[in-house]
Design a protein that fits this description.
Length: 291
């Protein structure tokens, strides 16, 4: 008894037709028929009733079918197990991350490398829009990105950090006498922000649009610490993660109200799951570490 005989038998049973079954297994129809005949001779019973317009299972065929399916499933499981082990020995994982963050992604990658030294890891920096595009086209297996205002239903999201989005000004700025500012209070003021495509900028743009105005962006920089330095020089109002706005002694933080804005960092991967065993193992480790 050969596995291909069981495969052909199961396929004919499911298709109820030799021609369609042959097309599905990419074998000429006479070859499929011959192999099933050999299987029947070995078992001493006809498995298929060929007398009608459609092929039907005989009583013996109906009894054999579950065992044939189980045998094929067992072989497929053994093959996947070997592929998983091989992938964790000689695999590859492509990871993306936003330029500036306070998540211990290096620690995660170091631990994973210690356990799977044969897996090649590549790390790419970019803004959140670029990282989402990489996840969608398959060039990235996972990414640490900033959550924007848009929903990403095709991706799985594990929120790692969530905090308020805060305005910050220099100590000598006219707003430094206040503890908060409504969003409309930033209208026409020079703002210092991350570029389009970043999570915080997405929240700012959407909130301003809902309030009926466009933010006046005077300066852009790719990392929050640079925004803080520009604001400390009196060049405008920086839009920052709350932790950065309140950690700089040169800045005065202002809570944004009506509405309050919140952002965060998340690990994301395709909703259908990564393709490689190594990527699946890395994501599982990340879920344990960050979740």
């Amino acid at each position: 008894m050969e596995l291909r005989q069981l495969e052909y038998f199961v396929t004919v049973a499911e298709e109820a037709n030799f021609t369609r079954a042959a097309e599905k297994v990419h074998v000429a129809q006479p070859g499929v028929s011959a192999q099933i005949r050999r299987l029947e001779r070995e078992l001493g019973q006809e498995l298929l009733d060929r007398s009608g317009r459609t092929v039907r299972l005989t009583e013996a065929g109906a009894a054999v079918l579950p065992y044939a399916r189980a045998a094929l499933a067992a072989v497929d499981g053994a093959r996947r197990t070997v592929e998983e082990l091989t992938g964790l020995v000689r695999g590859h994982v492509a990871v993306g991350m936003v330029t500036s963050h306070n998540v211990d992604l290096p620690g995660l990658l170091a631990e994973f490398h210690d356990d799977h030294p044969g897996v090649e890891i590549t790390l790419t920096e970019g803004n959140s829009d670029q990282l989402v595009a990489g996840l969608r086209d398959g060039s990235l297996d996972a990414a640490l990105l900033a959550l924007g205002a848009e929903r990403l239903p095709e991706l799985e999201i594990l929120v790692v950090v969530e905090e308020s989005i805060t305005a910050a000004v220099s100590r000598g700025h006219e707003l430094a006498e206040r503890d908060s500012v409504p969003l409309t209070g930033l209208r026409d003021r020079p703002l210092i922000s991350l570029p389009s495509g970043s999570g915080i900028r997405s929240h700012l743009d959407h909130a301003c649009a809902a309030a009926g105005f466009r933010p006046r962006i005077a300066f852009e920089a790719g990392a929050p610490p640079m925004l803080a330095k520009l604001a400390a020089r009196g060049l405008g109002v920086a839009i920052l993660p709350d932790s950065i706005a309140r950690s700089s002694p040169e800045l005065h933080p202002l809570t944004i109200t009506r509405p309050k804005l919140r952002g965060g960092l998340a690990l994301a991967w395709r909703g259908t799951g990564p393709n490689s065993p190594a990527a699946r193992a890395l994501i599982e480790r990340a879920r344990r570490m960050f979740g």
